Recover the amino acids of this structure.
């Protein structure tokens, strides 16, 4: 029998990546207008099938057949917010896991309210992903400036723990070290590269990858960790062969396709403990 | 005198590409939010002039001066659907050829209705372009999952033939082998590369290229074949010099600019017959 | 004491670029759907922090904390125009410089009216940036076809001068030679490369760079010149190492990060005079 809180190991992440590649999950992305193309290309490179169905007439219908759903608040408009609510309704009814990325929560009041409403509307998100300022902002603190985090991941750990426990979700705090917690387990991922901060939408695409991996495993901590591992290890490999943000972005897409489960297992640097 | 149904040959495609490059047609793209940037860059690389005028206040006005118009249903919203209807009205009144790309038709009911309404609203599209599931869905069958085709191009040939005859249009079914028919002629294009399925929006940009080539020739089968030839031959060349989806997309844009009419003629593998 | 109209020199531009890099200004971009991703990546590569807050509920709130604001009319919709008006209101109240890019002004009547209304709504823009056709169109003449300029920069100089004097703004006319004037001074930038016309959104991203540099200097002619210098010099360097529009776009992003203030100073070819 599987224990209720299995340990997150590089081997488990590698196995999950293999399942993800074998499955090619359909990921519905309701995301911001800056990163739609990038997000779709990240999903395709990694091995998933992207689809953006972000109108209120079809969002629920599609969430019922999608493997996972991403809701990203980067550029909310009245019509797309209505679509997000429909997508969450459809996902909740169908048991489809969904990921909330509360971009700029705390820093801007309108979207902060939208994010908090989505948290409690139907089923909770499988994963909430943000930088430290956004997690603090969603949990009730003051936010950063736009999409930048003005806080380190560590400072948001109490807020992440509280959000995870209150809503029965997993919270992933991106930063120089990524932190992932369900309120019981805490995983730290030490991979990554500073060039990730020089390409727009990398964090947003991580949320989409998490929605994709959540489609193939019920352990949401494992899903968030595997997605983070894939992206940050691909970034390390890409950085060695690029000389600026343009060539880095291209190499990152290549590496997302080239990284094997074995490569991921050997390069992944995680530790953890109790939240 | 030109026969009413001239044979489609590599030489005719090469000549059409030369005219396209000499003309630099203005292509109005009302397309989905995932592929706007990619579509514009594909058009620019190939030698056309892209413009996205997708609001209902200006869409008809612009369609009257554009060389060709693309209407792509990938991410419909109420305001952009109104713009599409205006664009089709303006194009029809001015005699501007327009292309319909019924993304995910059959799979999602709202947009399927939109696609069918656009087909019969004013002048029919010069070309309908989609994968097999979308063509089947538009014609009345069940569709696939999102933008993926779960059917091969061959299975959609009866539906393509019926659509072409009923609406007086050309239907292009994308797939491992591309099929293009006006109900009388049938052309099969055997070029292409599997990496085309790992970059988002390639099919969507093919629709835009078709709208551009339709601006320079009245033979819509020739237009659809020339556009398909250019994209798939550029893809073959790009694939030899890339190692993943990121570098492939970059090389594809380069090759769209580098492929000459002579190169296209020598590499094009088509056959045909009677539909 | 600084003279009211200091001369624009390569050394002054280099110093301004250094300040820009040291500051990393937050640039709010309300831009068209074709270029959102590209614009954000250009800003990140150059050293700024992009944020697109383009809904009417938050645009004013964010303009108060942004370093600079870009308003680009490429794909206006009712909701985003309302956001642009809010952003200009917020920027004007807070003293945040904003840049107007009147894409396709003159060629399309609805957006031309929007552009003229924005000019006089609150504080004037710090900089108006467009190609010759757009500047002529905004000033009252007939425009070009879409985003293409059918006029040379020189033909728009009278219109640029008139706009600058009437509204107390700086007008930057992009072209083979870029012209920048405040009605008193006139700067010509002779750098650049023809491949800039084969990648979508380069002009649009120049407007965003100008909003970013305007955040770090009160001399708007210097800001517009420095932004133009950075982009066109990066383009020259990128062109030497690319073979088509795809690889050029990648190299351009790399070069925007690699160009140093010293490199900019040594390569910049400007002259000027009295407008």
């Amino acid at each position: 029998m599987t224990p209720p809180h299995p340990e997150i190991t590089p081997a488990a992440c590698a196995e999950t990546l293999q399942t993800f590649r074998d499955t090619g999950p359909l990921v519905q992305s309701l995301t911001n207008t800056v990163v739609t193309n990038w997000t779709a290309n990240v999903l395709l490179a990694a091995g998933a099938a992207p689809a953006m169905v972000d109108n209120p007439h079809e969002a629920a219908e599609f969430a019922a057949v999608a493997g996972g759903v991403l809701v990203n608040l980067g550029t909310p408009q009245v019509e797309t917010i209505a679509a997000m609510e429909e997508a969450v309704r459809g996902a909740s009814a169908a048991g489809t896991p969904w990921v909330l990325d509360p971009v700029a929560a705390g820093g801007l009041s309108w979207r902060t309210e939208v994010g908090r409403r989505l948290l409690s509307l139907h089923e909770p998100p499988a994963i909430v992903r943000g930088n430290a300022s956004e997690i603090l902002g969603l949990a009730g603190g003051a936010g950063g400036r736009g999409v930048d985090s003005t806080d380190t991941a560590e400072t948001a750990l109490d807020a992440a723990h509280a959000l995870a426990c209150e809503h029965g979700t997993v919270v992933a705090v991106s930063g120089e070290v990524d932190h992932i917690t369900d309120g019981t387990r805490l995983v730290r991922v030490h991979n990554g590269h500073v060039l990730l901060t020089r390409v727009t939408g990398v964090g947003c695409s991580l949320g989409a990858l998490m929605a994709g991996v959540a489609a193939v495993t019920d352990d949401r901590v494992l899903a968030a960790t595997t997605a983070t591992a894939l992206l940050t290890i691909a970034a390390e490999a890409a950085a060695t062969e690029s000389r600026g943000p343009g060539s880095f972005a291209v190499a990152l897409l290549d590496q997302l396709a080239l990284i094997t489960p074995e490569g991921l297992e050997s390069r992944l640097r995680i530790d953890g403990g109790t939240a």
